[in-house]
Amino acid sequence: MGKLDPRVDAYIEKSADFAKPILAHLRDVVHAACPQVEETMKWSFPHFMHQGMMCAMASFKQHCTFGFWKGELVVGRASAADERAMGQFGRITSLAGLPSRKALTEYIRKAARLNEEGVGPVRAKPKPRPEAAIPDDLASALKRNRKAATTFATFSPSQRREYIEWIVEAKREETRTKRLAQAVEWIAEGKARNWKYEKC
Questions:
Q1: CA separation (Å) from 41 to 5, 24, 72?
Q2: Could you tell me which CATH class the domain 6-116 is placed in?
Q3: What is the pLDDT of residues 146-160, one digit of tens each?
Q4: Domain boundaries of the chain, sorted by first residue
Q5: Residues 184, 185, 188, 190, CA torsion sign
């Protein structure tokens, strides 16, 4: 038998009138589909655990949400409309806004099975940052110092970005000029911007 948490009862009781039947229904379906499920509160709203986080529900002033920790593996990619709310089912304002009990049961069983098998959630790969634009004064200084220009070209995009941001973020013109001269000197010596902190 699963484990009920009295804090979930209190959460449902404090929710808006429209939300109470939605939350009670979701809770009932989760327990029926996964009898070993345990309830808890995380981030101030109810979560359902089965060998790790499985799913969660929340209520707001005008809508509820319900979603799976491994949502993309359970229900597929969320539509653009659904991305405006937590979970995979968008803004739920009535029981009619939920999938059928049968469909929800299948999703919950699939989520439980993924946890039992130790399958991790799908993580979106971060998009690479675009190459930082080289300011004109740095470009000119590099042209005048062939060694620095060659070294700068071999730096990784993040190493080039560190120098560029350091120069561009100077608030006063004299600070910028000083940083520019220092940067060209260090680059010519093959040093990254934070070379002082690198392990030898």
A1: 8, 15, 23
A2: alpha beta
A3: 999 999 999 999 999
A4: 6-116, 136-197
A5: negative
